[in-house]
TrEMBL record:
This is Piso0_005878 protein. Its main location: membrane. One of its GO terms (cellular component) is plasma membrane. Keywords: Membrane, Transmembrane, Transmembrane helix, Transport. It comes from Pichia sorbitophila (strain ATCC MYA-4447 / BCRC 22081 / CBS 7064 / NBRC 10061 / NRRL Y-12695). Residues 1-29 are annotated as: Disordered.
Amino acid sequence: MEANTQKHLDDCDAQSKANESNQSAYDNLEEEEVTIDSNKIVDADKRLDKIYRKLDFRIIPALWCLYFLTSFGSNCYGLTLTMNSSEGHSLAQRLKLTSHDTSTASALYYVGYIIFDVPMNLVLTKVSAQTWLSRIVITVGLVYTCYHALTNNKGVIAIRFISGMVGAGTWPGMSYYVSLWYPNHRSTRRIGYYYTAAQISAAVAGLVSAGFQKMDGVKGYTGWQWMYLVYGVITIAVGISLLWWLPDRPFAKQRDGSTNKLKKAYDMFLTPPYPLKGDDVEIHRRDIQERYTLLRWSWKDIVQILTDLRIWPLIIMYFGVVGTGFGLAVFGSTIISVNNPSLTSIQVSLLYAPIWLFDLGGILILTPFADKFRRLRPWIFSLACLIIIAGLLVMTYAHGSWNKYAGLLIAGFGLGPTVPICMSWGAEIFQARYGDVGTAVSAALISGLGNLGSVTSTYALYSGWPADKARLYQYSNMMLVLMLGVSIIACAICALIKDRIRQTH
């Protein structure tokens, strides 16, 4: 009996050891499989990183130049109001512009954007993306070349509206274009990269205008006339080059089978080489294939987007930050001059540039976090708005002109990441539900209707509020603070409702 019992116990021990051995082997195998899968994921991510870097080298410089040149004109306009003012040769002095004239012209510029942003972006969903973006740059260059021939206030008002009309669709068009090539979790950083062009163009405009003021009187032209002529010609040339430089779409839209010879010739000579080759094409396609759904749309889709409650908080967010940005862009040189009347017009232009270099710093530092931590986008946006508010308060209430100037620099830093976050967040929310048209229309609505903030800051505030000049624009600055506060509230509302309304099924 004892022998049998002992044998049974020995058998149990042996089985237990075998089970432990098998479990250990299974655990080792499972760990090995997890390690292999993890390695595959890491390798795939690294491969994708390389693919998107290849795209960056081709796409981002082209978009950067596009946005630099289309932004430069608006920055030029603000500076020409004060260029060579000591000689009586500024745009405002030569054409005898009143503050009402300048504020009306600035407002109509943004009205052009508001009216035409959505139609222009809808066209972009139907035609060659690269051709349409090139068209925008070429027509902007043509219109700004005509600025040198202005002779009266009516001409300024009319041409500012035309400038907004031909430039409409630039910013939402680029946001839509980026969504064609990059998934949303990689888009904010890319939007931030080419958005730096606006800041650099503002800085360069200040430096360039200082140089063109030295040309005042050459061949009978003022400094601002020379600046518009040279800028317009360069812009037209770069716009034409974009036809070969900027790739079209990663995956061509379905053609209608047309055999039109002109169309064939166009495709032959104006279709740039594809930026990816070999296996990279298929890997890229798989990574963004979710983006290529619902490519066809109807007017019903547009109505659905317009009635989607989530679009309105995004518009209000954009309203506050872009209103502040353009207010400081157009009247930054005026604010510097009023705060320190002893500065010459050239010194004012040179001091205008660092504001936008600080803006560039904000983009480079904060937008990568908005991509990496997408759930924190509302917090990052709100933090940036608080930095702008702090800068405006310093600019308004600090003692001494240089302390006030430091406030401008702080505000510039905060402005940087706000607009890219608005655009990428809008694409994230609306592409999932509405597809291609959701990306295009949401970008146009956010940019177009949000530009009412630009109208407010340029028409109702600063030069549109003459009595505020004696207060060193204290009330105008505080109205911008109020607008930014509303943007923060709208951001909180958007964060609360974005996952509770019209979700995909």
